[in-house]
Structures are given as C-alpha cells and as structure tokens.
Write a sequence for this structure.
C-alpha cells in the first residue's frame, strides 16, 4: 500500500520552485499560499483570512507546473488541486496498457483529466462536473492546456437515474460540494460559504446512449463525488457489466453510509481491489 503523505519539503519545492506564475507576481502567489495555510490551521479565524484573501487579488491567477497550466482562485482550494503533489500517491494508477478513453466523474477543475490526457497519454476523455463555477474553471483549464478538442466536458451530475436532488455548493472548498438530504449534514455552518440548489441527475447508462458514446473504448474511470459514489455506480451498472480490461479509481470514505453496498456492487460487477491509499481505492476488472 502506498504511503498517503507527501513531504513538506516536496510541497514547498512544488509551490516555490516548480510553479511559474503567468500573471501577477510570485510574491502575491506565495502570500496567498501562506494565507490559505493559516486559514486551515486556525479555522476560528476563517473570516479574517477570507477577508485578506479577497483583498490579495482581484483576479484569478494562472500558474504552470509539471502537470499543466491552471486557473486558480485565492478564494477556494483550486490552488492546492493544481499542484503536482496533489494525491501524488495515486498518479501511477493511471498508467495503463490501453489509453483510449478516460472518464472523470467529479472532475472538479480538471487535474486528473489533464494528468490522464497529458502525462499518461489517454487519447480522449469525458469529464463531468455539476458545480457551475467549478465547471467554468474546468473549461478554462482544458483550453489553457490545449485539450478542448480531446476532452468533452459536461456541467452535469451523474446518479442512479433522472431525478432532482438537493445539492450543497461550497465556495471555499470545491471538493466538499455534495448532494445532501438535509442542511443538518452541512459541515461548515457559515451561510456565506455555501448555497443550496436543486440539481437534476442522470444515469451514466442513459447518458452514453443519448450521446452515442462507444463504451467499449473506456479504459479508465475515476469517480470522486463526495459520498454519492454508490448512486453513480448503480447508474452505470449496464456499462460496467459490458466492458472489461478497465481500471476504476474511486473515493470511498470510511464513514460513507453506503460503503459496504458500494464494495458489494463492485465485486458483483467483477472488480477486484488492487491498491488503496487513504480514501482512494483502485479496482481492476479483467486486467
């Protein structure tokens, strides 16, 4: 099992040496990093650090590193999700003998899509991100990396079937946005940091039929949807039962109420757990 932590020295090197700021100054970039670190360390002072971050820049920054070029905002966690050390112990999972189609469900701002189609040579990708603001950054990042013709991205939420569900969108932490049953589930109680909206979901099985996607080209699937993984898998049972020689990278939180059912469903579909680091799991089928 791979280690879960990346050393502070490597993180500092990625930020300070391995990152080029394409607009704005490096000093401004470092200042934003420092403020976000202090905000995380002293959560009771979050409002103060948010005020300082808001005043640190009136625009998003463009940065370039070993993974690609990214648009990042001082007001959310997009900067951390653009660094080469982000979930580094999982990167090698994308290495594959067949690299035709990469499916990124819960693409966020596009780190894994860019990693897959760039460093690991996947021919094309489908990327799904339901949060409109995060989706805007996803589209911009794909253009910055010249991938808009190889990647089809959709401002859509996948689930078990077509239905309208309640969704919590976080401002400061894009990775926490999720479907909820009630506001009591919300972790950050500051109302300025989130809003509640209604979003329609569609199953992946229906999506590929509507968009005439050749599912037999799928070689890798990544799913990171903050506790909604089981619902997404149920909506792609037909597809996953048809395809073979595929890898599946999925986040499954130990506290996920559907953890056992998720594991059982993957086993039923012929997937075998190959590796795990923290909440991230790599399953394989037919390899």
């Amino acid at each position: 099992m791979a280690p879960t932590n990346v050393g502070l020295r490597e993180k500092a090197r990625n930020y300070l040496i391995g990152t080029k700021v394409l607009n704005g100054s490096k000093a401004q970039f470092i200042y934003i990093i420092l403020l976000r670190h202090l905000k995380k360390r002293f959560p009771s002072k979050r409002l103060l650090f948010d005020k300082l971050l808001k005043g640190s820049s009136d625009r998003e920054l463009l940065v370039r590193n070993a993974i690609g070029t990214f648009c990042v905002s001082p007001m959310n966690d997009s900067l951390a999700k653009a660094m080469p050390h982000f979930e580094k112990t999982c990167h090698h999972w994308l290495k594959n003998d067949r690299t035709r189609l990469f499916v990124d469900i819960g693409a966020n701002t596009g780190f894994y899509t860019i990693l897959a189609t760039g460093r690991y040579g996947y021919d094309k990708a489908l990327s799904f991100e339901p949060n409109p603001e995060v989706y805007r950054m996803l589209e911009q990042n794909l253009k910055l990396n010249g991938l808009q013709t190889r990647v089809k991205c959709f401002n859509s939420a996948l689930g078990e079937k077509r239905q309208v569900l309640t969704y919590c969108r976080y401002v400061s932490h894009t990775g926490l946005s999720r479907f909820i049953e009630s506001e009591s589930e919300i972790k950050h109680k500051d109302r300025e940091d989130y809003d509640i909206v209604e979003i329609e979901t569609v199953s992946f099985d229906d999506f590929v039929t509507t968009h005439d996607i050749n599912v037999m080209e799928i070689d890798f699937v990544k799913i990171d949807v903050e506790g909604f993984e089981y619902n997404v898998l149920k909506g792609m049972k037909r597809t996953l039962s048809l395809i073979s020689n595929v890898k599946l990278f999925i986040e499954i939180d130990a506290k996920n109420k559907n953890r056992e059912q998720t594991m059982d469903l993957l086993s039923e579909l012929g997937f075998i757990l190959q590796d795990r680091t923290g909440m991230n799991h790599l399953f394989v089928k037919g390899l």
The chain has a mean pLDDT of 92. The CA atoms of residues 276 and 282 lie 6 Å apart. DSSP finds nine helices and 14 strands in the chain. The radius of gyration is 19 Å.
